[in-house]
Each structure stands twice: as C-alpha cells, then as structure tokens.
Design brief:
single chain; 5-stranded antiparallel sheet; 18% helix; 99 residues; alpha+beta; 53% strand
C-alpha cells in the first residue's frame, strides 16, 4: 500500500506543471491538447494519470463477510517529436494496484 501511495505522489509531482494550466505550447499544437515543449529533450511531452481508492464488502459462502480497501494508480507519459529519421513517439504507462 505504501508503494502505491508513493507512486501516486511521484506521479502527482510530475503532473503539477501540467495542472497549472491546460495550455498547449504552440510548438506542440500539432500533437493535441496538453503537450508542453521540453527544451532539454527537444520533444513535446504530456503527463497524465489517475488515482483511485475503493472500499468493498463481499460475502462468500463459508467465508462470511470480507471487507477491505483497494487502491490503484495509473500514469501516462507521452513524448513526441521529429528526428532526422522521421517522427518519434514514446509512451510509458506505469500502473500499480493494491487490493
């Protein structure tokens, strides 16, 4: 559970600049909304994600009622740009789940 919370905090820290405004950098407008230009890499990057927490109760014959918390975190980092060989795209989608 602690690793899930840590991963969510790290993802949120990466996404904070994107949350500051839903503006797209003019250099990245051809890729869609939310892409920001990174001068260090020369690429257009978009960071997004989702954090979910659940509480559930379930009954099974012979086992009685079971209750518990669950959580999941999903993220996506999408980098796009042009290279000497043509268009480049890399997508990373980390996910963690604890039930």
């Amino acid at each position: 559970m602690l690793r899930t919370i840590t991963a969510a905090a790290a993802l949120f820290a990466l996404a904070v600049p994107a949350l500051a405004g839903d503006k797209t950098d003019p250099r990245c407008s051809q890729y869609g909304e939310g892409f920001m230009y990174s001068p260090d890499t020369g690429m257009c990057i978009k960071v997004s994600g989702e954090l979910r927490a659940d509480y559930g109760i379930r009954s099974q014959a012979g086992f009685g009622k079971q209750t518990g918390f669950g959580s999941s975190v999903k993220g996506q980092i999408d980098a796009r740009g042009e290279t000497g060989l043509g268009p480049f795209r890399a997508v990373i989608e980390p996910a963690a789940r604890k039930y």
